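Any chance you could type out a protein's amino acid sequence plus the matching backbone structure tokens because I've never seen that pairing?

——
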Amino acid sequence: MFARRSYNNSAFLRLFEIFDPSSRANSPSPSLSTIVADMSDFFWITGVRAAGVFHFLTLALACFTPIPPDWEKSLATLPPIHRRFAIAQNVSIGVTIAVLGLFSLLFARELAGGSPLARAVSGATALFWGGRLCVLPWLEVRPVLTTPPLKLGYALLLTECFIFAGAYGWLALK
């Protein structure tokens, strides 16, 4: 179904074959380019899985961040349809983060493999996080970040957006 390279030998074991001649007595030595390619795939797969974990960590931490001051009072002054839009947008963002996290955890090998579908999913993920990187500063939340942990959390969120946009963008274009 998916075109993928054989992963019967881990990249690390194949790397150590270079230093232990007895382990390759009956098999041809792998080329350095094969070892580097396998290690690159290993690191991309591991990185995508780690990103999946960070998607869920971000979602969990978002549940503990303070909402804007007077959120309930401000929402109450809006017409009901605007309230529903605000709530629906927050739910939509949360569900999107969860789905992208699941894709990253469950399909890391495929995402790193570069099939057309994997590239499309990676591109969509890069656009989502790149969009957040552009929108978050526009929201001008800095005045309500009154404690060092909140300021650090916001800086880490922007850093995460930048890294995810770049890494998933790379996967989409490689």
